[in-house]
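ok so i was messing around last nite and threw this chain in just to see what happens. nothing serious, just curious
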Amino acid sequence: MNKETTGNKKVIRISIDCKATVNVGEYSRYGKSRSADAVQALDHDMEIKKKMIPFGILNLDNDQLHVFYGNSNKTSDFICDALEWWWDSVKSENLEVEELIIFSDKGPENSGCRTQYLFRLVAFSEQSKLKIRNVYYPPYHSKYNPIERVWSSLERHWNGTLLSTAKTVIEWTKTMTWKAMSPVVNVIDKIYSKGVKLNNKEKEELESKIVRNSELPKWDLTITPIAVDF
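result:
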């Protein structure tokens, strides 16, 4: 698939993933600091009062990285809000694009069976007029998802730093580089509810808008925007 689509200006390929939640506070992260004096952290983890959820979108065609931080819950709606925000910010540079290919792990928030995720993708496709193809890596193969290497790079970048405030987390993310470029960092300050689901009738209607690969129906699916006659 990558060979077929690389260089095609009508197709944009992205790799997405939610990184492990960042606990904000003076917690020891077992890293090493280059400072002359050792960083002073809490000797044991107290009750965690604030968390930040990193979600990344890596453009596989130009290596531009976008990182979104949420401060609520890791949900399908959080992921899709980030995808819509990302597209709004880059669509003026991609006027020829007709298809979006999303490579990702099959997490619980964005799996091919998660109805709220698929519902939001259908809405995104219809609003953006993009054909959207979701391709998932099989279990235990997340290391092949390109954005996983980005998270590894971020961990090395802020290794040993006390991520004591949300501002510290954001600023350290901004100063990392990926392929000699700084990431675009945004915060989605919104409360997300867990467990949002569709009823059986809504599920049936949703499936009518999705074309699944006959051999890998849960791992390769395509959403095509509905053509409107004027």
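not much to say yet. Helices lie at 2-5, 76-90, 115-128, 147-157, 166-175, 200-207.
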